[in-house]
Amino acid sequence: MAGFTSKEEMEAVVKRFIDAMSTDEAIIKRSKGLKCTLGFEIPDLGLNFHTDFLDGVVSGGIGEADPPSMVFLEMDSEIFDGMFTGEVDGASAAMSGQMSFSGDMSAAMGLQVLQDDMSRVYMACRSLA
């Protein structure tokens, strides 16, 4: 698994990822009716960011969300990267302690309809790193 060599490298990919999701027609369409905000902490790089899926409006940013995210995920950059490139199974990462989560898990489960599209967009953004 590749991961990232620096906070700046991952932050650049995350910014592109959030921007690309906010204009991706498939993600916008599938996020209609959803209300979930995700906060991510990447402790190995000291990076926090959030993604928001609010009834077809997709946004996010670097730093913690205000108000706080409904769901909070913590994992190292290599696990995050692996989850969005298909190299790591999220459930397995949680069961093995490589990822922790808290918050409204029913809201998070609704995001499963976006997983393939989010991975597609992430890999396109990652390839530009």
Give the tags.
single chain; 129 residues; alpha+beta; Nonspecific Lipid-transfer Protein, Chain A; five-stranded mixed sheet; 6 helices; 43% helix; 25% strand
In the predicted model, the low-confidence regions spanning at least 5 consecutive residues are: none
Shape: globular
Number of domains: 1
Order of helices and strands: HHEEEEHHEHH
Structural class: alpha+beta
Name the CATH homologous superfamily.
SCP2 sterol-binding domain
Number of strands: 5
In quaternary terms, these chains amount to single chain
> Average pLDDT, to the nearest integer?
93
| Strand residue percentage | 15-25%
Please tally the helical runs, counting DSSP H or I stretches of 4 or more residues.
6
Q: Give the termini separation.
A: 15 Å
CATH class category label: Alpha Beta
CATH fold description = Nonspecific Lipid-transfer Protein, Chain A
CATH architecture: 2-Layer Sandwich
Please summarize the sheet with the most strands.
5 strands, mixed
Strand order, largest beta sheet: 3-2-1-4-5
Portion of residues within helices? 40-55%
